[in-house]
């Protein structure tokens, strides 16, 4: 699972506190890095859609990269390539994603997040 995906996932369990359902906290993480084709245009369009604070925090917590806390006004190629590396090339292979609102654990196995809930949690 790419970090761009983590940036967009939130808990949908019944009764979960919506103010705490995002972001999901990554625990017991195994990372891998996969090359992805760099497209400056794609990254420039992606950045405004990201929750920047969440990406910065996640990249730092996982030891992937240090991104600037504030989005820079001038986004040069070095910066864009770093975002590319963090958001698209860093993959979570195995992890537990824990919701801070309700404690639900969403597992990631072989790079695939399982966002399914039990019937009584929907
Ligand atoms: Zn939840």
Automatic annotation (TrEMBL):
A single GO cellular-component term on record: tRNA (m2G10) methyltransferase complex
Pfam families in alphabetical order: Trm112p (PF03966)
UniProt GO MF annotations: protein heterodimerization activity; protein methyltransferase activity; rRNA (guanine) methyltransferase activity; tRNA (guanine(10)-N2)-methyltransferase activity
Stored InterPro entries: Trm112, Trm112-like
UniProt-listed Gene3D superfamilies: 2.20.25.10
CDD domains attached to this UniProt entry: Trm112-like (cd21089)
BP GO annotations: maturation of LSU-rRNA; maturation of SSU-rRNA; rRNA (guanine-N7)-methylation; tRNA methylation; tRNA wobble uridine modification
Family membership: Belongs to the TRM112 family.
Protein known as: Multifunctional methyltransferase subunit TRM112
Native source species: Spizellomyces punctatus (strain DAOM BR117)
């Amino acid at each position: 699972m790419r970090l761009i995906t983590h940036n967009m996932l939130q808990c949908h369990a019944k009764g979960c506190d919506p103010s705490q359902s995002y972001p999901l906290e990554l625990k017991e993480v195994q990372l891998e890095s996969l090359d992805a084709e760099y497209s400056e245009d794609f990254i420039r369009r992606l950045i405004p859609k990201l929750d920047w604070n969440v990406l910065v925090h996640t990249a730092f917590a996982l030891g992937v990269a240090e991104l600037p806390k504030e989005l820079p006004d001038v986004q040069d190629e070095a910066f864009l390539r770093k975002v590319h590396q963090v958001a698209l090339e860093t993959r979570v292979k195995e992890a537990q994603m824990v919701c801070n609102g309700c404690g639900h654990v969403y597992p990631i196995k072989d790079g695939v997040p399982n966002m399914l809930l039990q019937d009584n949690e929907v």
